[in-house]
């Protein structure tokens, strides 16, 4: 289980680095660099849009998979810990707003053309929300650690205990 816990954390934090970092690069480096550059810039933006879209979709999937895994693994160590549940619940809701905005920005629906035309503004908002999500997650991780498992429950999870059970 511990390997899976580490893999899930690695996936979660790695996805945050790629998606938040990629959004930051587009908002603060790419968009200002190609502003007012005419048709050539429009072609480059369209190409980037197509490539970035795949990372956004994969990133949302990985966030959900690793996030819910972390959540269910940590839940038992946070029984009765109201503040942790409020913070993580809020964080998950804010993350869903981020997923919605990112999907709209890489999508094709004509309904959201106006938002895509102001990508700089909307990506800026996504980054602000992402800063809130990372802040809440960091606070929960550092200041609200999960209670350790009772020794009997922890012993059940060691490989020796598992082998012992199998031999019975
Ligand atoms: C914008 C999307 C998200 C970002 C940027 C993000 C970022 C992070 C970061 C930086 C951590 C701290 C990891 C560590 O220090 O080990 C974390 C932890 C966590 N995340 Fe996310 N996350 C996102 C979405 C989600 C979603 C959708 C879920 C659940 C469905 C989720 C559930 C969790 C849980 C349960 C933790 C552990 C908190 C703790 O240690 O008390 N996250 N996240």
**What is the approximate shape?**
elongated
Write down the Rg. Answer: 21 Å
Mean pLDDT: 91
- Oligomer description: single chain
Helical content (DSSP H or I, runs of 4+)? over 70%
- What structural class do you assign from the helix and strand content? mainly alpha
What amount of the residues lies in strands?
under 5%
Contiguous uncertain segments of 5+ residues: none
How can the largest sheet be summarized?
none
Distance between the termini: 22 Å
| Count of individual helical segments | 7
| Total domain count | 1
Task: Tell me which ligands are bound.
Answer: protoporphyrin IX containing FE
Number of strands: 0
Q: What series of H and E elements makes up the topology?
A: HHHHHHH
Describe this structure in words.
The protein is built from seven helices and no strands. Helices cover 84% and strands 0% of the residues. The protein is elongated and about 65 Å long. 10% of the residues are buried. The protein has one domain. It has 168 residues and is an all-alpha fold. Bound molecules: protoporphyrin IX containing FE.
């Amino acid at each position: 289980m511990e390997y899976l816990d580490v893999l899930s954390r690695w996936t979660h934090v790695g996805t945050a680095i790629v998606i938040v970092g990629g959004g930051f690069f587009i908002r603060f480096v790419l968009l200002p660099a190609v502003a007012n550059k005419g048709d050539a810039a429009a072609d480059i933006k369209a190409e980037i849009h197509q490539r970035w879209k795949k990372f956004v979709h994969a990133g949302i999937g990985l966030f959900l998979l690793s996030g819910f895994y972390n959540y269910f693994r940590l839940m038992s160590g946070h029984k009765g810990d109201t503040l942790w549940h409020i913070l993580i619940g809020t964080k998950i809701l804010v993350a869903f707003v981020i997923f919605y905005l990112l999907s709209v920005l890489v999508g094709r629906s004509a309904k959201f053309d106006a938002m895509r035309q102001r990508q700089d503004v909307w990506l800026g908002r996504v980054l602000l929300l992402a800063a809130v999500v990372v802040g809440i997650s960091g606070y929960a991780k550092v200041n609200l650690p999960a209670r350790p498992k009772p020794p009997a429950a922890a012993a059940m999870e060691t490989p020796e205990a598992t082998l012992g059970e199998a031999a019975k």
